[in-house]
Each structure stands twice: as structure tokens, then as C-alpha cells.
Design a protein that fits this description.
This protein has a single domain, classed as Neuraminidase, CATH 2.120.10.30. The protein is built from no helices and 21 strands.
């Protein structure tokens, strides 16, 4: 397994009136993050907070190219990013124990924290299509270039992990600095991961590790469509 230390390239926040950052996602222009009772949009270049709307937002957030998805009290809500209106609701697989959320090639991927699971689910019905077991708590999840990554936060330590989407085997580990938590995770589709900072009220951009050699990847594995 390849190991490295995280290179934090930028820190965002703290933001007025926000104590915690939970899930987050990237819509190609803005980073959206969940702060408990709101979803907030931030310009990743300037760091300016652009807008927010009320939502039950205490866990993972995702974007499918048109809509936001938010884990909210044991369910996943599909939201209009312009108005915040709830367009549809499906059950979340963990029944309230879910943490991370991302979108890839037509499905949602849900991280479960203490159960140490990642589920691929049907976004229309909530049906579980695949289950992956981790050996650490799972916070955020994201796909980029055919790679499945998830965040961990356990025993006061956090890391980013690239795993085999079939077996859950850890292929790469990126350790965060002491005292820096990862409560949510999303790729920008390129060289940055956005990492929620939990009760710090901040989130951070972490440089995605460079590949030493091309990985052998299953052509059927999904690629993060939000980067397109």
C-alpha cells in the first residue's frame, strides 16, 4: 500500500454563524457544504460564501450535474440547487447512521460511519446495489478517474484512502496532519480533494497524490461524472 502525508493547499473558513462542516460536494463551479441546518455555496477560488438555503444537512452531500442530494435524518433528499426545494426523497441505507455521499455514473454512493461500510444505491428507489466493507470509520466518499476514495475519522486521526471498489482493499493512504479531521470528501475532478473539517467550521483543499505508474483499472468502474 502506498502511504503519504496530505498536502493542504488551501483552507476555507471559518464562516459566520457556522460551527461545523459535514458533507460537501462540487458542482463544477462552487463547493457546497452542509452545516447542520443549511447548505452553503462557496467560490473555491476566492473563498467567498456565495449563498445558502435552509436544509436538514448533518451528513453527506452530492451533486449529479443538475441536482443536489443531501442525507437528512435517515433519508436522502433530492434538492433544487436554485431554490432548495425538495424534489424527491428516498430512504438512506443506514437509517440515520450515514455519513458520506457522492454521485458517480448514475448512482449514489453512501458512506456509513460506525458500520464501516460504503453502499452503492439506486437514486430513484434507495435499493442497495453494492456493499463494500472498510476497516475504519467511513466519512466522505468520492470517485475520480475511476478511483474510489473515502475519508476516515477515528481515534482522533483522519486520512484519505483509495480502495478497491470490489474488495475494499486499501490501495493508498494519505494521512492528514494531527488534529485535522475529515468529515466529508469530494474531488474537483482534477488535482484537488475538498475535505470537510468537522467542528472546526472549516473545509480544506488537499492536493490529490500523483500516480507513479498507471493503475490497472476495471473499465466497468464508474468515473465521477461531476467533473465533466
Amino acid at each position: 500500500m502506498k502511504r503519504s502525508k496530505a498536502e493542504i493547499v488551501r483552507e476555507y473558513g471559518p464562516f459566520p454563524g457556522i460551527d461545523s462542516v459535514h458533507g460537501l460536494t462540487f458542482d463544477g463551479e462552487r463547493v457546497w457544504f452542509a452545516s447542520g441546518d443549511k447548505l452553503n455555496a462557496v467560490d473555491p477560488e476566492s473563498g467567498a460564501q456565495l449563498r445558502s438555503f435552509d436544509a436538514i444537512a448533518q451528513a453527506g452531500t452530492a451533486f449529479d450535474g443538475r441536482h443536489l442530494f443531501q442525507i437528512s435524518d435517515g433519508r436522502i433528499q433530492k434538492l433544487d440547487p436554485q431554490t432548495g426545494d425538495v424534489l424527491a426523497t428516498i430512504p438512506a441505507p443506514g437509517g440515520g447512521n450515514d455519513s458520506g455521499l457522492t454521485w458517480a455514473e448514475g448512482t449514489l454512493w453512501v458512506g456509513q460511519n460506525r458500520e464501516r461500510k460504503i453502499y452503492q444505491i439506486d437514486p430513484e428507489t434507495g435499493e442497495i446495489l453494492r456493499s463494500i466493507t472498510s476497516d475504519r470509520f467511513v466519512t466522505g466518499v468520492t470517485w475520480v478517474d475511476g478511483e474510489l476514495w473515502h475519508g476516515t475519522w477515528e481515534d482522533e486521526a483522519s486520512e484519505l484512502r483509495r480502495i478497491d471498489a470490489q474488495t475494499g482493499k486499501v490501495l493508498e493512504s494519505v494521512a492528514m496532519p494531527d488534529g485535522v479531521a475529515v468529515s466529508g470528501l469530494e474531488s474537483d475532478g482534477g488535482e484537488r480533494f475538498f475535505c470537510g473539517g468537522g467542528t472546526s467550521g472549516r473545509f480544506r483543499a488537499v492536493r490529490r497524490p500523483k500516480r507513479d505508474t498507471p493503475d490497472a483499472r476495471d473499465a466497468n468502474e464508474p468515473v465521477d461524472s461531476t467533473s465533466e
